[in-house]
Prior knowledge:
By secondary structure, this protein is an alpha/beta fold. The protein has helices at 11-22, 36-46, 62-71, 89-97, 110-121, 129-143, 158-168, 173-180, 184-198, 203-212, and strands at 2-7, 27-33, 50-54, 79-84, 102-105, 126-127. Pfam families: GerE (PF00196), Response_reg (PF00072).
Amino acid sequence: xxxxxxxxxxxxxxxxxxxxxxxxxxISVIGEAGDGREAVRLAEAxxxxxxxxxxxxxxxxxxxxTRRILAQPGAEAIRVLVLTTFDVDEYVYEALSVGASGFLLxxxxxxxxxxxxxxxxxxxxxxxxQVTGRLIREFTQQRRNRPQAPAELSxxxxxxxxxxxxxxxxxxxxxxxxxxxxxxxxxxxHVARVFTKLGLRDRAQAVMLAYESGLVVPGANSA
Length: 223
């Protein structure tokens, strides 16, 4: 059972999401919060698998709440799914930078919300293609005057580096396996090693590192 906490300052939004998610056989909404401080408290007390997090809220916003939740001892298994709209891309960038596992547009369909919760719960990232490209182009270029690759990148083998680039391109493990003509099990092994060597918790952080370090250049074809 996937345990979920919903965070949004609009009561009607929380109620709608809760009703939708609770109707699923494999999802249980164990708490709701109207602001970031309450979200941090609930996450610490109830240890949800997924926190569905709004960004813009009075008091503590979703970015700071995400930072604090994921910094708690024993929070390694918690995943944060950020809710956003097209006009808050910069906030999404910040949320991913502090450890959010992905983001979903607020006008997403019911099926998309349910699917997104399941995706992040199993440890994958959710990086919507229609937002990710714009996000990466606008904000990595602004923040990266002279990119410096972290020293840990040098510990990757050539194949592990190739896998990281393909992850940054949005490819799934099965798609990477097809591209490299190897088994999906082999890809999973490479991904695990990349995460371990670079200290990453999920694919979202891998994407951010690949762009911020200059390993992948916005607008370039990494295929």
